[in-house]
Amino acid sequence: MKRAVFLDRDGVIAEVIDRGGRPGGARSFDEFKLLPGVRKAVARLKEAGFLAIVVTNQPDIARGLLSSQDLERMHDLLRQELRLDDILSCPHDNADNCSCRKPRPGLLLRAAKKWEIDLARSVIVGDRESDVQAGRSADCETILIDAPYNRGVEADHQAADLSEAVTIIIGKEH
Ligand SMILES: [Mg+2]
Ligand SMILES: [Zn+2]
């Protein structure tokens, strides 16, 4: 059984875009920007023996605000730039009542089956309460990236950015 670090995308490895006080993910390929330091952070996870798997809600697909072509271009860029093992996304909105939209753990469970992951020895890094809840439902350890829009959300650990989260994860190995 393998160990994984599940990475939320927006606010963890890619920039969040503030739309009049409502932060969200890029709606076009041109808006999509990686955060500084994420390439090295993911490489450190890989060197420590973890699978690195992106698990992302992309409800702007269901809302007609983002095309699946642009989403695919963003994820091609991620595959080129970062040493990821997989990218799993939920294209649904609440009304679809799917099992994959976080806070539900469907994306993590699907990845666990596909990659033979030991969830109880795995970690999720996210910037939303829904990431923490999905992680808890899947029995993973949880790390919250601090952001102005998530004050008061509690996780097992807090980190300023992915690099600090990776230090927490790898530090526990020794
Ligand atoms: Mg996020
Ligand atoms: Zn879904």
Can I get a quick summary?
The protein has six helices and eight strands; from the N terminus they run βββαβααβαβαββα. It is α/β, with parallel strands linked by helices and 174 residues long. The chain has one domain: Rossmann fold.
Report on this model:
With 174 residues, the protein is α/β, with parallel strands linked by helices. The protein has a single domain (4-171), classed as HAD superfamily/HAD-like (Rossmann fold, 3-Layer(aba) Sandwich), CATH 3.40.50. Helices cover 33% and strands 20% of the residues. It has 6 helices and 8 strands, in the order βββαβααβαβαββα. The strands form 2 sheets. The protein has a 6-stranded parallel beta sheet, sandwiched between helices. Strands 2-3 form a two-stranded antiparallel ribbon. The longest helix has 14 residues, at 68-81. The two termini are 20 Å apart. 39% of the residues are buried. The site of magnesium ion has 7 residues, from loops.
Layout: helices, strands, pairs:
Elements: E1 4-7, E2 17-19, E3 22-24, H1 38-47, E4 51-57, H2 59-62, H3 68-81, E5 86-90, H4 106-115, E6 123-126, H5 129-137, E7 141-145, E8 157-159, H6 162-171
Parallel strand pairs: 1-4, 1-6, 4-5, 6-7, 7-8
Antiparallel strand pairs: 2-3
The structure holds magnesium ion (MG) and zinc ion.
What features would you highlight for this structure?
Rossmann fold; 174 residues; alpha/beta; binds zinc ion; globular; two-stranded antiparallel ribbon; single chain; binds magnesium ion; 6 helices; six-stranded parallel beta sheet
Q: What is the CATH topology assignment?
A: Rossmann fold
> In order across it, which strands form the biggest sheet?
5-4-1-6-7-8
Runs in which pLDDT lies below 50 for 5 or more consecutive residues are none
Number of helices: 6
Bound molecules: magnesium ion, zinc ion
The tally of domains stands at: 1
